[in-house]
Design a protein that fits this description.
heterodimer; A: mainly beta; 43% strand
Amino acid sequence: QSVLTQPPSVSGAPGQRVTISCTGSSSNIGAGYDVHWYQQLPGTAPKLLIYGNSNRPSGVPDRFSGSKSGTSASLAITGLQAEDEADYYCQSYDSSLSALFGTGTKVTVL
Amino acid sequence: EVQLVESGGGLVQPGGSLRLSCAASGFTFSSYWMHWVRQAPGKGLVWVSRINSDGSSTSYADSVKGRFTISRDNAKNTLYLQMNSLRAEDTAVYYCASNYYDSSGYLYWFDPWGQGTLVTVSS
């Protein structure tokens, strides 16, 4: 199964804006499947952060935003805070409705 | 409260078997698709298997096909993963997660997730 490609790490100072890319292909993201994002704090289970490309579940701060274009998607964190230090994963599907996860990005707050 | 609780992990020798369970509560379990996702130590999330709401359709990652079997008991609100012929590379935290498949063919996001259960394959 194919995977979705993310940068291994991104970093920024408190208050800055960082973005995480998620690159797929014409058989997954480019085929029209939505992209969802999960945050995984150290030692915990993943938690839904963004669903349906750009929607935030109740309780997720509005400094998190998502977008999708073509075969890629991106997650932006504006006003970076220390508590945002975590691993972030994108997720989509292929034509067999098998789930695909991104390779994961570690966000470090400097 | 919507909750998924995994159990059954532990230490097993290569070639051995283990059955994981995932108990669901707080939502209509029989209406949701269920998945297993694993995470090797220090590595990323990898989808393992899924089963549809009534158990009539399953799918597996190539790495576990023929060795793992996913099943569910809707009367007991419980998901299972039977793991046979285990290998060292199967060592991981195994999470169960749920999502919804609607009549238009849209498969939703994973929410909620369980807390995970650790499987260690080692001699």
